[in-house]
Write a structure and sequence with these properties.
Rossmann fold; 3 domains; 4-stranded parallel β-sheet; 15 helices; 15 strands; elongated
Length: 466
């Protein structure tokens, strides 16, 4: 398997530190609001990467954190008149609801920054003792000039990174590029913890360093996140982790591309900012997931309702194939006497190999999904010739590989829960009307069924609910 490593700017062979086991960290949400469609992309993509590694027989220790203390949390809690903890509790639960709707499985560990304070204080102590950090009036800053490899991930030297950097009002750091690892309490009612430097709270960057270390150790296999996190967040994680621990922090750094909305950068001020909760009012979560996985993770993608409807249609094509298989198995006369189609095993194996090869080559989910469409096309073309065993095998293969991406999980049987006695009577009445060439009544019944949410299709083997 090869993955593009932003640290080396190459597609590198992925070899875990420990054979058969992967330690993977992904930056999670700051829980002060519902997460937006831009956040959803890395959550979906790296959940899928984890599942592909598990499909390959690898044990994945996967950490995705909750940032539950920072300026945004403090300001939002004050605005709502609740504590920072209450705010975090609220939106962690809301995150879980939306993540579940998107097919995202819980990580192995989901630590909260506020549960890692002791480890954060310990790391800051080490950085100060080693001379990589310094304290000023209760604030502790990391000195970027002291870390020789600063800029290795963003591939810029320190002078480039200093361009445009400013010292904010109230900051007393020595250099513009220095960043806070511990922040002094500003007001008596601000959330804070006791520390050797007085009451305060952690900086954002060091939270992830400490949560990764706590659950995965000093060196991990893969660190992931959105492209916008490369600098400064991930650059700073590397600096403070490696300065503290004395070893390489992560062997692979994998980042997804940006999302635009209707070909424009997503922003609240432009009014093109959507939360996942809002999107789920119009689209099933599986459609959102399918949309995200239909592009290569490193490519920028454009989000629009038109493109979401296209994704919906694409997903429906695959479900229709599965439904067609079920219908053929139940209704085709003489299916038990069919001989195997000669080339079925070959194209099934080719499809499976193409699917896995696409994911092995820098986790190309777009190409993997294309191979599914090709297999579906071939199954549809041969569906009336395939033997019973081959039809079952085709369905099992689509579901098996779909499971790798957490797709095609819904019941593809003929919506039997909707088919009550009244519906069955209407379908029978319509079939009788068609036999009697009473097409007016047949059309009336079709509309009655449609109003009940039941769409039917006439086939040579009878009426099919789609």
């Amino acid at each position: 398997m090869k993955l593009y490593n932003d640290l080396t700017l190459n597609k590198d062979e992925f070899i875990p530190i420990e054979s058969g086991k992967v330690k993977m960290y992904s930056c999670g949400p700051t829980v002060y609001n519902y997460f937006h469609i831009g956040n959803a992309r890395p959550f979906i993509l790296f959940d899928a990467l984890r599942k592909f590694l598990e499909f390959k027989g690898i044990q994945v220790d996967f950490v995705q954190n909750f940032t539950d203390v920072d300026d945004k949390m403090i300001n939002k809690a004050a605005e709502m008149g609740i504590s920072v903890k209450e705010l975090g509790d609220m939106f962690i639960e809301e995150y879980k609801k939306d993540a579940s709707a998107l097919g995202i499985s819980p990580p192995t560990y989901a630590p909260r920054a506020t549960e890692t304070i002791d480890e954060i204080i310990d790391m800051v102590k080490v950085l100060v003792d080693k001379g990589f950090a310094y304290e000023v009036d209760g604030d502790v800053y990391f000195s970027t000039k002291k870390f020789a490899d600063y800029g290795a991930l963003s591939h810029k030297n320190l002078d480039d990174l200093l361009e445009g950097a400013r010292i904010a009002v109230g900051e007393k750091k020595q250099d513009n590029a220095d960043f806070a690892v511990w922040k002094a309490q500003k007001t008596d009612d601000e959330i804070a913890w006791d520390s050797p430097w007085g009451k305060g709270r952690p900086g954002w960057h060091i939270e992830c360093s400490c949560m990764a270390k706590k659950f995965l150790g000093d060196t991990i296999d893969i660190h992931t996140g959105g492209q916008d996190l490369i600098f400064p967040h991930h650059e700073n994680e590397i600096a403070q982790s490696e300065a503290s621990n004395g070893v390489k922090f992560s062997n692979f750094w994998i980042h997804n591309g940006y999302i635009n909305i209707d070909n424009k950068k997503m922003s609240k001020s432009a009014g093109n900012f959507f939360t996942v909760r809002e999107i789920l009012k119009d689209f099933d979560g599986e459609i959102v997931r399918f949309f995200m996985l239909s592009s290569h993770y490193r490519s920028p993608i454009n989000f629009s309702f038109e493109l979401m409807n296209q994704a919906k249609s694409g997903l429906e094509r695959i479900y229709t194939c599965l439904s067609n298989i079920d219908f053929e198995l139940k209704n085709a006369a003489g299916i038990d006497k069919r001989n195997d189609v000669a080339n079925f095993d070959e194209y099934s194996k080719q499809f499976s190999d193409d699917f896995v090869s696409a994911l092995d080559d820098d986790f190309n989910t777009a190409l993997a999904i294309s191979s599914i469409f090709e297999f579906v096309r071939l199954v549809n073309s041969d569906i009336h010739e395939l033997s019973k065993n081959q039809l079952n095998a085709a369905k099992a293969l689509i579901l098996k590989l779909g499971k790798v991406l957490s797709l095609f999980n819904k019941n593809v049987e003929q919506n039997e829960s909707k088919v009550d006695d009244d519906v069955e009577k209407l379908i029978k009445e319509r079939e009788d009307a068609r036999k009697e060439k009473n097409f007016t009544r047949a059309d009336e019944i079709r509309e009655i069924l449609k109003n009940k949410g039941i769409i039917i299709e006439d086939t040579p083997m009878g009426t099919k609910i789609v």
